[in-house]
Design brief:
Length: 242
């Protein structure tokens, strides 16, 4: 799904490969029922070490006191729930950070999100980041392998932070929280940038891939048939000119 992932395949396979990202369907975002004095940072994913929610909690703890009107909500379930609950208590984030589980409606996490963060240590692609961009939610992501760099241009449609660096993530959170104009600008550009990942262009890429593979197979079959005919006639193939 990314050029960097392709680099891990043998050279012979890379010559025959295509890079096609996952498509995105924007979440159905419901407007707030009424104005709120509290703003929300949202993260989404399985509660496992890969997703780096422990790093996100530590980053949020660094700036929570200076941003009392912001809370953190981490949607998802998984084996790390007990450890994350303990981390929330250890960091003194009770009432500021929550783990509500899984949303009843797919994409329901986007409702009321003022800021999205993907804190993963690594990803195969990172569908949820792309969904946040498509929904026009200002977003921050670790520049982890692989996916975020393909979606986010730092400072243009979101913020990229060096992977697993908690102080840098805390600084990016503070920067976004303090600057409504920045959030608005990044959100507008995020929605526009996500259009290249809508189903139309992705389906076209898959169709072109299938057509190219079929054409290549037909060419090999034709070449094989030509060699068989030449051999049956007892004719040596012509030596190509030097």
């Amino acid at each position: 799904m990314t050029p960097h992932a392709m680099d891990f395949f043998p050279e012979k396979m890379r010559r025959r490969g295509w890079v096609i990202p996952n498509p995105v369907m924007p979440p159905v975002v419901q407007a707030r029922a009424e104005p709120s004095d509290t703003r929300t940072v949202v993260a989404v994913g399985r509660l496992v070490r890969q997703k780096g929610f422990d790093l996100l909690l530590r980053a949020f703890a660094r700036i929570a006191a200076s941003h009392p009107d912001w809370n953190l909500v981490i949607w998802g379930e998984g084996e790390e729930r007990p450890a994350l609950e303990q981390e929330i208590a250890r960091l003194g984030l009770e009432g500021r950070a929550s783990l509500p589980g899984i949303t009843a409606q797919p994409g329901g996490w986007a409702s009321g999100a003022d800021l999205f963060v993907m804190s993963s240590r690594y990803e195969g692609w990172g569908n949820v980041l792309l969904e946040a961009l498509a929904a026009g939610i200002p977003s921050i992501s670790f520049d982890c392998p692989w996916g975020p760099r393909e979606m986010v241009k730092d400072g243009v449609n979101g913020l990229l932070v060096r992977a697993e660096e908690v102080p840098a993530l805390a600084a990016a959170l503070s920067k976004m929280m303090d600057d409504p104009a920045l959030r608005e600008r990044l959100a507008a550009e995020a929605r526009r940038s996500a259009e290249r990942f809508t189903p139309g262009p992705i389906v076209t890429a898959w169709e072109q891939t299938a057509e190219a593979a079929i054409a290549r197979k037909r060419l090999r079959q034709d070449e094989s048939q030509d060699r068989s005919l030449v051999g049956a006639a007892g004719i040596e193939p012509a030596t190509p000119p030097v």
